[in-house]
Write a structure and sequence with these properties.
With 311 residues, this protein is of the alpha/beta class. The chain contains ten helices and twelve strands. The chain has helices spanning 27-42, 61-73, 89-99, 112-115, 128-144, 168-183, 200-214, 226-238, 252-259, 271-286, and strands spanning 15-21, 50-56, 78-81, 103-106, 121-125, 155-162, 187-195, 220-223, 245-246, 266-268, 294-296, 300-302. It has a six-stranded parallel sheet with strand order 2-1-3-4-5-11, sandwiched between helices. The chain has a four-stranded parallel sheet with strand order 7-6-8-9, with helices on both faces. The radius of gyration is 22 Å and the shape is elongated. The structure holds beta-D-glucopyranose and calcium ion. The site of calcium ion (CA) has 7 residues, from β6.
Length: 311
Amino acid sequence: LASFAGCTPKAKEPLKVGIAIYKFDDTFMTNYRTEMESYLKSLETDDVKYEITITDGKNDQATQSEQIDNFISQGYDVLIINLVDLTAAGAIIAKVKAANIPTVFINRQPSTADMALWDKITYVGAKAEDSGTYQGEIALDLWNAGGLDKNGDGKLQYVMLMGQAIHQDAALRTEYSIKKLTDSGVEVVKLFEERANWNRDEGQVQMASAIAQYGDKIEVVFGNNDDMALGAIQALKAAAMVIPVIGVDATAPALDAIGLGDLAGTVLNDSEGQAHTSVDKALALLAGDTLVKEYWVPYVKVTPANYEDFK
Ligand code: BGC
Ligand code: CA
C-alpha cells in the first residue's frame, strides 16, 4: 500500500513555485526577483524544499501568457506574477482559478474587478501616490531653500520623464510629485513630459531632447524611476549642465549618484520588503489561509542626509 504514488506525503516533494517577471532587463525587478529566490531558499527545511522557476516575459504579454500556461500544465503549486500588460489579468486569473493554483500579483496591480474574480489571489505592492509625494517633498525642500528658481520668476519650470503607460506607478508618480508642490503653493510650469518607459537609455534620449528645446530654462527634473533619472543625468553631463534630478527606487547606482552629488534624491521602493511579502503571501495562500486583496510595503524618502542608511 505504501507504494501507491497517491499516498506519498506531499511535504517530501519540492513545492513548485513559478515566478513570471515582465522582463529581466529591468533594474528594480532584477533586485526583486533575485531576493524572492534567495528568500524562498532561506525558508527551506529538511522537509520542505522549493523548486523555483523564474521566467522572462521579455516585455511581451503573449510570451508571458505562454509561460504561465506552461506553469499551469506542469502542475505548479503556486505562482507569483509581475504582469506585462494589466489588461491580461482577467484572462490569467480565469486560468489559475480553473487550475486551482493560488497566485500573488506583484508590482503591477490588476483592477479591483479582476481581483474580485477569485479568493485565492492577492496583490503585493507599494502605494505609488506616496512615492510621488516624497519626490514632491524633496523638490519642495530645495525650492524653499532657494535652490531651484534659477530665472527668479517665482515659478518652477520642470521636466518629467515617465514610465510605461500600462503601469499605475507612472501615472501616480507623475501626478503626486507635482501635486505636492502645487498643494504647497508652488507655481509650476511643465516644460517637457515624455515617456522613457523605465529605461535608462530612453531617459537619456528624452532628456537630451528636453535640453535641446529648453536648455537653461529647466530648473528640476523628475524621473518616475531611478534608471530614467540616471539617464537624464548622463544627458545633463553631456551638455555640461547641473540641474537637480529626483528619482524613485533607491537602486545601488542611484545611491552612488546621490553620494557623488549627481542625484538630488530618490525614494526607496523596497524590493527586499516586497519580495519577502510576496513570498510570504504565496506560501500563506498555499497553506489555505484567507488573505485580503492587497498588501502594501512602505516607501521611504532618500536624500543626501540619509542615503548611506540604504546602502
Ligand atoms: C519601479 C521601476 C520598474 C517598474 C517595473 C516600478 O515600481 O519603480 O523601476 O521599472 O516598477 O514594473
Ligand atoms: Ca523659475
